[in-house]
Amino acid sequence: MPPRMPIESGVPDPFQYMHPLMARNFGAWNYHERPRPGVLCHTAKSGDKIWTVRAGTQRQMDLYTIRKLCDIADEYAEGYVRFTIRSNIEFMVSNEAKVQPLIDKLTAEGFPVGGTGPSVSMIAHTQGWLHCDIPGTDASGVVKALMDELYEEFIKEDMPNRVHITTSCCQINCGGQGDIAINIQHTKPPKINHDLVANVCERPSVVARCPVAAIRPALVNGKPSLEVDEKKCICCGACYPPCPPMQINDPEHSKLAIWVGGNHSNARSKPTFQKLVAAGIPNNPPRWTEAAAIVKKILRVYKEDARDWERLSDWVARIGWPRFFELTELPFTKFHIDNWRGARRSLNASTHIRF
Ligand code: SF4
Ligand code: SF4
Question: Which helix (H) or strand (E) holds 293?
């Protein structure tokens, strides 16, 4: 049989980058322990052991920081690193004596060691101003500001269970499902630049994008354009990506909303959908103090009131939403009640891909 030829897309073969001890024991691990926050120790069936030290980063990293981390890997670890999906860096060492000097070096350089077990792990974020063309807020900035506030919760393991926090910089696309999610919330319909619509937008596809059928074609000043029925519009922002002249981002009216209790399904449990708990929070860079204060308050109450190993959604399910609002002292308003009847039955919940 001819050898399988390399392809030009897709991930590279990971074994070439793997610590040799890990490659040797691939698929043959016996158990693992957490000797301290931020450190995992895996024991293979062969008796080999490997220690993994996890450190937080600022997520969007410059070249100098990456070089510094690589130098630490060469000098204090064994030259092998990997990044987790939440942009933590992990160093692997085959000798326990190397663990503490590595932790000391990382801490001295400002990289917190933690994020394992029942801690607040690094916040996952979408791309924000750096890469995407439709964000209403930065995302990595919110993460950096918030993780600075939650530093102690990252380096310690004293939450009832793991806490996953996410941020999402628009209302409709990637991200935004976690134990606590900080998501953009538009509060006014898009403002249409009619001079540009005919040049830039494919109008039928913009009309089709609206989940509540609020957009219709229109002639404005003799030019083909679009109009929005503002009574129907739910300010979702779905029309803005295919038609940038339908500007929805606004320094004053694009706010943040906080949702809690989201959890992906796993082998044992079904997914849980997050619920809105705070809305209309100022989108206030560079420290996002108002959003940070609410997240910290929710975490403090969860830590005090939840039982061991209860995830945030389990805790809320046990105590009930009225008690959640009482304990967190977040105001419960009419906007928390989902009584809206204007949607097509399923909004955009269909799994079909639409173009
Ligand atoms: S959440 Fe929205 S704005 Fe942010 S990166 Fe994803 S698509 Fe872009
Ligand atoms: S913001 Fe959303 S609901 Fe409003 S017009 Fe655009 S797509 Fe429709």
Answer: helix 289-305
